[in-house]
Amino acid sequence: MGFSLGAFSTPIICKTNNNNITQALDASLIRRAAEIADKSAGFTSPHPNFGCVIATTAGKVVGEGYLYAQGTEPAEVQAVEAAGNWGKGATAYLNMEPGDCHGDRTAVSALIKAGITRVVVGIRHPLQHLRGHAVRALRSEGLQVDVLGEDLQSKIIEEALKSCLLVNAPLLYRAASRVPFSVLKYAMTLDGKIAASTGHATWISSKKSRTRVFELRGRSDAVIVGGNTVRKDNPRLTARHGGGHLPMRIVMSRTLNLPEVANLWDVAEVPTIVATQRGARKSFQKLLASKGVEVVEFDILNPKDVMEYLYDRGYVSILWECGGTLAASAISSGVIHKVYAFVAPKIIGGKSAPSPVGELGMVEMTQALELIDVCYEQIGPDMLISGYLQPVPDMTPVIPSVDETSEIDPTVSPYESSIIFFYKTWDPYGAFSNFSPHPIRMPDENGDYLTWSSVEHYYQAHKFVGVSDPAARKCVEDIKSARSPEEAARMGRTIQRQHPNLVRSDWESVKIDVMYRALKCKFSIYPHLNSMLLSTVGSVLVEASPHDLFWGGGREGEGLNYLGRLLMQLRSEFLGDSSTPSESSITYQEKIK
To answer: Domain named CMP/dCMP-type deaminase: which ranges (predicted)?
Structure first.
């Protein structure tokens, strides 16, 4: 990659045939689309990466855009706005097929209205319920749509296709394997040690390498360590990049033989989850809960089950920074997809000094796992070696995963018409999420109407509305101007944890009504959303959050599911059905019995 904005500001002149010229231009601009798709990394939680480049037939770039976060303006809309009149008759280059899943085809409509005549798509959307829809819609409007590897095939096209696969590798792995994309990272000496015989490990790698680790954390939804790392290193596991996305910190410990005081138990800035075996040290679990640490119990604690749980939580990318024992277990479980190994020019020796990966049961060198697509990079005095343990999933023909919604009760099929699950905006019913990109206009305390970028913006800000403290009023304004629903949620939750005195005193009693008003506005002003909601008549709506036991359904159906209840209540109101008991009073557990 590494193309500049002006790389194609003038026509490319070549004496080869026109087809070769066109394919070279297509490949370069698709690589540019993939490059800019990655621009939001480290600032928002991992999400599908979309980039769009609009260029004239002569190769002049006239517009670009990328998706900043879930619930923000699509890349195609940004590029069209930047292109202006230059968009007429131009070609749009997309690293991935648009994922319009809200019924309004925002990205597709933007390209059509701009007068784009040709669209080059890197890869089709990996999620089955979105796959091929935008391509068909564009073609039905008379646009020429060329998909790499299908309509365009050559060596140079294959290389461009690879850049599109890599920029969305986390989403592709997640869709294919139904677990988050997992990266194992470690730093070791030249003789393969991650610590001295005493356990001392500060520092093996250079400061420049540690800065790269912070960047890797910023690209992840969560960072995982084992109990031994907590006991010996007492890490903070922060991204330290001056703001933006902060990954969840996860500790895996079967016995909960963990210190009562640790940096990870400070959740003022970053949340922590402790995953453990069911029944382990209940008194210590209570201590952690009192500190605000979330404890999740598993019947048998193992990497595969933890990854499946994090998949249900909607996570896309996980960074493992654990010791050799847990690393070996994760590799053996088949959940590690990529490895980052920082090798420092140091030798420490020691027969009992630990290595980065523990026992894998291999007895011959022929059994060794070999990395794919290996890259080498010098970082200060260190060498970074990275590569994939599993190849990036090939999206041709179709991924076997047919549904991205979470299963709360494993005995109930997600295809049952009686239950509709929703959670992330990319789910089949993603428009039901508070993070969906649908602005609402709501009156303030003075009756003046204000525009909120999403329901989540409105909800989080109203935790502080009406509080006389000037700091609370500033919180409202800051949340209102947040660039994405994710950032609004992060700000609201963080302020609530750190400054509970700024939260309105009646919040617990009014928060349902606040959410109801915002949802009613959203589903009243967008006809396609109203139609989508009414199309679910006869089905129970469940927000498939495995951890939010108030708004969501919970991990095993134990949640109150108030978001689903409110949507069902609104559905009844829109239908004018006031003669029957409100569906919101029926728990979905009762419905499926």
So the answer is: 24-146
